[in-house]
User: Fold this.
Amino acid sequence: MIKNVNVVGLYVRDQDEALAFYVGKLGFQVHTDAGSGDYRWLTVQHPDQPSFQLGLFKPGPPVHDARTAQALNELVAKGAMPPLVLLVDDCRAAYDRLSGRGVEFTQEPVDRFGTVDAGFRDPSGNGWKMIQAARQPPAHDSR
Assistant:
């Protein structure tokens, strides 16, 4: 039986650049950095979510031929891949903190659907939404 999702991969144009962004700017930690020839398995994880890894993978051999790798890099650079979502306690405070670290936002925080969200892209072009956790109504005391 399936236990959980362990790794979700992103295509990045430069793994060192992606590592600097995800660790240095977003606060992730390196989980695995191992190579075999030209292939590098690089994953990071959020310090509060140790069972989940984000793979920072460069399109190319041995997984992709040169034409496929080029096409994938172009799609990522255009922001054509599905966005990923980060959940935050306070979107405006996270926006200020990450902007101060050099994260370039494509959308400032906006109130919508009962919460607040903002958008940014990583150096390769992968889109991210940062969404403030919806406030839960207080539990009803049924004494």
User: Anything to note?
Assistant: The longest strand covers residues 29-36. The first helix runs from residue 15 to 25.
